[in-house]
Specification:
about 300 residues, 3 domains, four-stranded mixed sheet, three-stranded antiparallel sheet, 13 helices
């Protein structure tokens, strides 16, 4: 755990709920009965309109919130997830960013960096520029380049090919060719570019559909049971989260209404507007039909 957190057991007890902590030396805490107690407490906790009042939070946060990096005496650096890390990275890399960008731009290439993710794109067969840009990045004091964070691509006949990080370090140009390696596109900030089209990353699309089908199937199982029926609120929430119904914000919705911020389809619509000539939104077409089919309603 790299983030600070408030133990859920403490929150449950503060609200008068029974909670059993996991104890490595006590098998009972891992059993079904203990799990049921925790599940019941979590369900009750999530139904509360407010878990802590502002006064309770202010009075108890210093003694209750666990800060992992303070407990590790040898820990250094900035806690994961803080926006400060991006700001400091930009300040530290300001001069070297300009040097790498000038090097790559001299051959009509592209250099992109987001925090510690480095992307270098060069024309085909331009080993010298790719190696020089990589050497500049390696020369930054206290910066250790990692294969999974440093991506070097070349554009060859309109196609994107990823170059081997280790081969470039050895002064050679080798294209990454593995059956499961997504080296045929540039991935940056949630988008993939294959040399011709921009698309939303497949991992993002996969997460959307995984959550959608999980929610839809649970409603479908209730619909098939003659003794149980999904509540209107639950069905409405499914359409709100996964259909165009929730993607359109309304002026009548207040800022406190979560639906005023839209859903994943809102993000897709904004992306399609930013890239009007690319196939962005095709994977979310006919969502009403998909919802009806997945829930057994159509």
């Amino acid at each position: 755990m790299h983030y600070c957190y408030w133990p859920v057991g403490d929150l449950a007890r503060r609200n008068g709920l029974c909670w059993i902590d996991l104890q490595p030396d006590d098998p009972f805490t891992f059993g079904n009965s203990a799990s049921k107690v925790r599940f019941k407490a979590l369900r009750s906790l999530n139904r509360l309109p407010r878990i802590l009042t502002p006064a309770e939070f202010s009075a108890c946060k210093d003694s209750s919130i666990v800060v992992p990096w303070k407990e590790r005496h040898d820990a250094r650096g900035i806690p994961q997830g803080l926006a400060t890390s991006g700001v400091l990275a930009n300040m530290y890399m300001f001069d070297i960013d300009a040097q790498i960008n000038a090097c790559v731009a001299s051959v009509n290439g592209r250099y992109i960096r987001y925090c510690d993710d480095l992307i270098i794109v060069v024309p085909a067969k331009d080993l010298k520029t790719a190696s020089k840009a990589l050497a500049l990045a390696q020369g930054v004091p206290a910066v250790e380049l990692q294969d999974e964070k440093t991506k070097i691509h070349r554009v060859n006949d309109g196609k994107v090919e990823q170059l081997s990080f280790d081969a470039l370090l050895a002064g050679e140009m080798e294209v990454v060719r593995t059956a499961h390696h997504a080296g045929n596109h540039v991935s940056f900030l949630g988008f993939d570019f294959d040399g011709k089209d921009v698309r939303i990353r497949q991992s993002t699309v996969g997460r959307f559909y995984s959550r959608f089908y999980r929610a839809a199937k649970s409603i479908g199982r209730l619909a098939d049971n003659p003794d149980k029926h999904p509540s209107k609120k639950r069905v409405s929430a499914l359409y709100e989260h996964y259909s165009p119904k929730g993607s359109r914000s309304s002026d009548k919705r207040g800022a406190s209404d979560p639906s005023c911020y839209g859903n994943y389809l809102s993000y897709v619509a904004r992306a399609q507007k930013a890239f009007p000539n690319d196939p962005i939104s095709g994977h979310v077409s006919k969502m009403y039909r998909k919802i009806n089919k997945a829930t057994g309603r159509g």
